[in-house]
């Protein structure tokens, strides 16, 4: 996200425009917590995780009167446009602000879940994915040496994108995730039994946080109770949400940050950026209400084939 902030600021600088940094998302608009952000303020942030502007949930943004006050504050301060980095909630808030008060808004997709419509990539996903894969590579050493079963829980409260892609990249024996069509727990038992019969003596199962079975600890309880299996559970948790971003995330953050400003300067008013087949694309903000993408089914099938 810092790459996007830096690029937006420096592109605006190049176009002779001033930028304010709004702190803690919409909460910062509500509280007028914004300060000038210059190119020099963005030195040495490209490689930093998180966001220098911080973030917050802001339930008040759902109230029309709160948005009206914030819109008037922005107009009074001479703010011409807003760049919002976030997911479907943030884009919904921006779309409403633009529709109600005419403030031009640009969205930059930022969520580790990579589950926004209209883009095949979001900021943070590649970094989170690589973090999960590196962690599981380390776990694999113990699984293999001790001939153990590990259940590794990755993030994804309502999305299996991280889980399915992690499973492919670290050679997991099985993957459970929220959007899976078959019943996760029963399918898992079948897969583990088949692996054992094929001679596998260690297994890594990747479980998305939001899987219907209830997460890795719940599944481990069931496996112990129903099948007397011994295993270890690792919840990777918030280590996936931090750390120095990968080159891919830095490059897309930079491209999107600069493009958002160029399009706003050219008069576009209600859009978010994304990527499709490697190309930078722009979508109307209202498209954020489309159904969210599921993990590609062929990846889930491939994970099963590769686990043979
Ligand atoms: N329906 C909505 N109307 C107005 N603002 C919204 C709406 N949904 C979300 N927001 C605003 O966007 C913020 C971020 O949304 P959230 O769902 O928490 O994260 P994300 O942007 O990652 O999806 C919320 O804290 C709220 O301020
Ligand atoms: O427990 P927290 O801090 O709310 O975060 C966990 C949740 O946020 C997510 O990481 C998504 O967050 P972002 O969209 O902000 O990247 C989910 O995968 C996860 O379920």
From TrEMBL:
<keyword id="KW-0479">Metal-binding</keyword>
<dbReference type="InterPro" id="IPR000023">
    <property type="entry name" value="Phosphofructokinase_dom"/>
</dbReference>
<keyword id="KW-0324">Glycolysis</keyword>
<keyword id="KW-0067">ATP-binding</keyword>
<dbReference type="GO" id="GO:0070095">
    <property type="term" value="F:fructose-6-phosphate binding"/>
</dbReference>
<dbReference type="GO" id="GO:0061621">
    <property type="term" value="P:canonical glycolysis"/>
</dbReference>
<keyword id="KW-0547">Nucleotide-binding</keyword>
<dbReference type="GO" id="GO:0005945">
    <property type="term" value="C:6-phosphofructokinase complex"/>
</dbReference>
<dbReference type="GO" id="GO:0048029">
    <property type="term" value="F:monosaccharide binding"/>
</dbReference>
<feature type="domain" description="Phosphofructokinase">
    <location>
        <begin position="1"/>
        <end position="262"/>
    </location>
</feature>
<dbReference type="GO" id="GO:0003872">
    <property type="term" value="F:6-phosphofructokinase activity"/>
</dbReference>
<dbReference type="GO" id="GO:0016208">
    <property type="term" value="F:AMP binding"/>
</dbReference>
<dbReference type="GO" id="GO:0042802">
    <property type="term" value="F:identical protein binding"/>
</dbReference>
<keyword id="KW-0808">Transferase</keyword>
<dbReference type="InterPro" id="IPR035966">
    <property type="entry name" value="PKF_sf"/>
</dbReference>
<dbReference type="InterPro" id="IPR022953">
    <property type="entry name" value="ATP_PFK"/>
</dbReference>
<dbReference type="GO" id="GO:0006002">
    <property type="term" value="P:fructose 6-phosphate metabolic process"/>
</dbReference>
<comment type="pathway">
    <text>Carbohydrate degradation; glycolysis; D-glyceraldehyde 3-phosphate and glycerone phosphate from D-glucose: step 3/4.</text>
</comment>
<dbReference type="InterPro" id="IPR015912">
    <property type="entry name" value="Phosphofructokinase_CS"/>
</dbReference>
<keyword id="KW-0460">Magnesium</keyword>
<dbReference type="InterPro" id="IPR012003">
    <property type="entry name" value="ATP_PFK_prok-type"/>
</dbReference>
<dbReference type="GO" id="GO:0030388">
    <property type="term" value="P:fructose 1,6-bisphosphate metabolic process"/>
</dbReference>
<dbReference type="GO" id="GO:0005524">
    <property type="term" value="F:ATP binding"/>
</dbReference>
<keyword id="KW-0021">Allosteric enzyme</keyword>
<keyword id="KW-0418">Kinase</keyword>
<dbReference type="GO" id="GO:0046872">
    <property type="term" value="F:metal ion binding"/>
</dbReference>
<keyword id="KW-0963">Cytoplasm</keyword>
<comment type="similarity">
    <text>Belongs to the phosphofructokinase type A (PFKA) family.</text>
</comment>
<dbReference type="Pfam" id="PF00365">
    <property type="entry name" value="PFK"/>
</dbReference>
<protein>
    <recommendedName>
        <fullName>6-phosphofructokinase</fullName>
        <ecNumber>2.7.1.11</ecNumber>
    </recommendedName>
</protein>
